[in-house]
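Take our chain:
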Amino acid sequence: MPRNLARLGLSALALLATLPSLFAADAWLTDLEAAKKQAAAEKKDILVDFTGSDWCGWCIRLKKEVFDQPEFAEAAKKFVLVEIDFPRAPKQSPEVKARNEALSKQYAISGFPTILLLDAQGEVYAQTGYQEGGAKKYLAHLAELTKQNTPEGKKALAAKMKAEALEHEVEEQLGPVLEAALAKKDVAGAEAAMYKFFKEKGLTGDNLVRMTLNVRVGITAECKPGDHDAVLKVVDEVAALTQSKEVLAEIADLRERVVKVRDQDAERKKSQGK
């Protein structure tokens, strides 16, 4: 290949490598208070991405599949964009780390990525996360979420976030409560301690059902490792406690995953002649 063509080819490759950054949305802010001021001045909503940029697989996929795409860059002009990052590499100042941790607690962030939508006054009205399907589908999803920017939508989300904050608090405190019973593989004792603790914490409604499901499944898995049928029995018993379509859908999804694991284990044992 002639030298000038080779150089041209290398230049083209270098240009291609920069395309994602060229198409990326306008610079993301890292200070939510500054974003609120900008949003108020420009009369825009705020999109906040709580992310683990260098370790969270779903966060990395969301950035690559959505945020770095040209479709998002154009549509995102209606938002002030904010990234609240929790990297594992030590690249943040102590002040930024502390500020981000405070925001995580304020908004009861329990997983990454978490996307919040705020109005121009800084009030949260929608919450979501990773969605499959690429930028076009994600933008349609965001468009649906913006319809929740109503007094009723904000009230419903505030109640949901309060419930999630309580769940997170209970999860953090539950370990010592169950420790003695789990050490003895005492399912009944662990469940009795769980129900007593839930009552003390005032868990009710969907909160109570979700936490009962998660903790009872955890207790069963700990005390009866590999007994998928015992876990499924727990799942079915908890499903009978609620008529909430949202919670029942979550329970059905969990049941499907447990069945899949059970069947995979059965196939593996069969292939090993056990």
In short: The first helix runs from residue 3 to 23. Strands lie at 45-51, 79-85, 114-118, 124-128. Residues 7 and 13 are 10 Å apart (CA to CA). DSSP finds eleven helices and four strands in the chain.
